[in-house]
UniProtKB/TrEMBL annotation:
Highest classification ranks of the organism: Bacteria, Bacillati, Actinomycetota, Actinomycetes, Streptosporangiales
A GO molecular-function descriptor: DNA binding
Protein name: DNA-binding transcriptional activator of the SARP family
DNA-binding region, residues: 1-90
Keywords assigned by UniProt, alphabetized: DNA-binding, Transcription, Transcription regulation
């Protein structure tokens, strides 16, 4: 049995997709999955599913929905009753979001050990698991909305880390299109903007890199009354002066990073690109 929440909720058994026609069943299963094997308190489930209208019948309604969910999922999927709520017991690799988080951890560990190709590949594999917005169609429940937001932030951070690795692997030419779309979609996320500036600069497009900075500065000033971050301003200054530290990150034949003494200030390519997305 496989469970997917990185997109619309789906449950598959082999090649067969199980029907979860009731919005209550889908929401209940999604909340159990988002507890990542921990106990989901009954009060939280009842409040999310029925709110104030649950009244005194809340626990009875919850037990009925759990009975229907167990019948749909079959005996192989265990939902245990605990003193405070219910616990979904499934193997870690049966939930796409859990696999995503594991692959992201492994990818970052590889990057920390300077295994850039392996790190990039692991992060790419994690990101390829996404089928659309997390928990699509269920985020009108506040708990699930918060979980969907959390997962999407993890996706964007993993994407920025993968792009950092690809920049260090001299893949800047292939990144310009992807980064241009990301900057249009997330104009206030300076990490993507800095990565696009660096990719353009390394491709010999210095003027375009500086224009990307000016566009971001205009947006921040007009919409928020802010200036770009110190990291982005430093990157702009380095591009203006063609600072040698902005040269492509060096890699050996096996994809492991090689550092030169004068590159220590920007071991990740630029001071901005090692920062988390804002």
């Amino acid at each position: 049995m496989q469970f997917g929440i990185l997109g619309a909720l789906e449950v598959t058994d082999g090649n067969r997709q199980l029907p979860l026609r009731s919005i209550k069943q889908r929401s209940l299963l999604a909340m159990l999955l988002c507890h990542h094997g921990a106990v989901a308190h009954s009060d939280i489930l009842i409040d999310a599913l029925w709110g104030a209208e649950a009244g005194q019948a809340g626990n009875q309604r919850l037990r009925l929905q759990l009975h229907r969910l167990r019948r749909t999922l079959g005996a192989a999927t265990v939902i245990e009753h605990q003193s405070t709520g219910y616990q979904l017991r499934v193997p870690p690799d049966s939930v796409d979001a859990w696999r995503f988080e594991r692959l992201v951890r492994e990818g970052r560990q590889a990057l920390e050990s300077k295994s850039l190709v392996r790190g990039s590949d692991l992060l790419r594999a994690a990101l390829d698991m996404w089928r659309g917005p997390a928990l699509s169609g269920l985020d009108d429940i506040s708990f699930l909305h918060r979980q969907a937001t959390r997962l999407d932030e993890q996706r964007l951070a993993a994407l920025a880390d993968r792009i950092d690795a690809d920049l260090r692997l001299r893949r800047h030419a292939q990144l310009v299109g992807e980064l241009s779309a990301l900057v249009r979609e997330h104009p206030l996320r300076e990490r993507f903007r800095g990565q696009l500036m660096l990719a353009l600069y390394r491709g010999g497009r210095q003027a375009e890199a500086l224009e990307v900075y000016r566009d971001g500065r205009r947006i921040l000033s007009k919409d928020l009354g802010l200036e770009p971050s110190l990291e982005l301003r430093r990157l702009q200054a380095a591009i203006l002066t063609s600072d040698s530290s902005l040269g492509a990150g060096l890699t050996g034949a096996n994809g492991h990073a090689v550092h030169r003494r004068h590159d220590h200030r920007h071991a990740g390519g630029c001071p901005h690109c090692s920062k988390r997305a804002r």
